[in-house]
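Box S2. Input/output pair 1.
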Amino acid sequence: MPAPIVESLCIGKHPSHPDACEDRVVSALPYAAAIVDGATDIHGYRYDDRAPGWLAADIVARCIADNAERMVTEDWNDDAVFSEIDRHFEAAYRHFGLFDLACADPKRRFRSALVLARASTDGLRIIGDLSLVRVDGSRVTNPTNDLEALFIALRRALWSDPSMAELDEDGRDAAVGTLLRAGIAPIGPTADIRTRVETVLRREPHFPPETIDAALDLGLRGGRDARDGRSPLYSMAIDGFSHENPPQPGITIPWGQFSTVELFSDGYPGQPSGATIADWEALIDAANREDPRRLGRFAAVKGVIPGGSHDDRSLIIVRHWARPRI
């Protein structure tokens, strides 16, 4: 059986600190492939001089790489995969003396996003954030959570607010980032800003009013801390407590019904028409050239680091993935 053909890359957003990259690519073919995207820390915690998102990405990537063959030969289901990931997180929390604290306080947990493709008897099983998967050039599913779009709209509104008019672009980016992270109080010095940007957001009918309220009150920190699936700021995350979270979505694509699978992180500001690394990287080149502040066609929640990008990015493209012989 011919081996799958693989292309992959993983690039940090900060060119001067490549070791700080919080994305990971796992290529354990023909058994599994994955993209892991550590959540950027906004609370300021560090452990062994590493950010929680870096640690989360490393934990998940190592677990998948170490167990990829077992997942297939022992026919693990999704619960078995997440239970093993939880076990690796628990070991890390105990290593840092954080296990009891992590149990009690979600803010102290290491978090990452994940999309994992693994071989199974019936076909290619894909679990995690399915909006970060393309099969034969077509997206498997569109994002079901509009939080990123809401925070992009909020960032744009803040950037254009009259209170920012006297700041240069770097100062404006920093001030906007502070308000995005912490929320905007309806009283005190930010009250007028809150009123103006809230008016802008409420003109968009696809943003639920309760989500707008929560985003303005709590900011990105509120999203990081929301572990109740009923919260308007809830987003999927891998943090070692899978039993507390709603099930991760998954699909199975039968063998022989696909040719190319692309897994990618949200560090790409869009999707290309082609399916090569060069096609994906052309998006970054275009974004840096046409929309360096990520407010227009290539809008993002975060601003760009000079000489770098707005986020870490990772990608794995697998062609001709067939069921492994066991």
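Box S3. Input/output pair 2.
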Amino acid sequence: MRTNPRLRLAINVIVGILLGIVISQMLSGCSDELPLAPAPSAGIAGEASAEVESINGSKTAARISPTQANVVTTISPAAVATTSSATSPTAVAPAAVSVTAPVVSNTMPLPQTKERYHLSWDGKLEGDATRSLSCKATQCRYETHASVVGLASFSEISDFQWAHGQVEFQRYERTLQLLFKQVARIEKQADGSIRSERRGKVYQYAGKAGLVDILNIEVQLRADRLANRAPKASYPLADSKGISAISLHREADETLTVAGKARHSEVYVRQDGKRKTTLWLDPAQAFLPLQIIHQDGAETYRMIWLGDAAK
């Protein structure tokens, strides 16, 4: 049987067309259920929709063009932070932290009072004493006056300046009246040197920063403890013949019964050479001395607090 050449040609054309369609679909990678995306064109015509999750977890609809679909962009953390703060209406830049150095006041922190004490001199002589602190602006005076009526008297005066949380030595004077009068003076000069007089002799020596005297070191100790600071272990002391070191250390706390009441006290010992002073300080009264025992060679005196002299 011969086939009509025209029919054979028509069949070949149809088969070729069908094969072309099948091959085209295989090369496109798309199934019959998903239509091919339209070719990119100008304007918004080839854009596709996508959902993008933001950093804070919310989802935002974004439009991504096919030309951008395969582009990977790397964003640094700094850029993310900048973009977030710029676009988010609730983003707030962290407040700057201000660090301020502590300010030490030039105002004397200790109460300026006059206190009464009972005096015992070598365990044989009994008397009375007063101790007072007074200031005008930064100029201060700390003084002790004690007496055994008709027999002896003793006084100590310390003039100093209170600045930047520290005593600044200016003048110390001690007077003892026992049979005859004995006076010792130590004073800072205009040029910063120290001049002293004792038993008719005069001494002069160079000054030093942080200088204290035997009395105002107590003010420094009390002010340090009131500010919850540990006192220094040693201070340069203005003495009659020159500068010496005075040590200061704390001993075990004690409870004293004074002025009719049991009171907790911190105990400190200051010492220079043969002179040793033990102080019982009351934290409840700005570290007021409740008891003082001073030993200077063979001499010893004790003071026990009786109360505020103004009451």
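Caption for Box S3: The first strand starts at residue 48 and ends at 53. Residues 15-103 have pLDDT under 50 and may be disordered.
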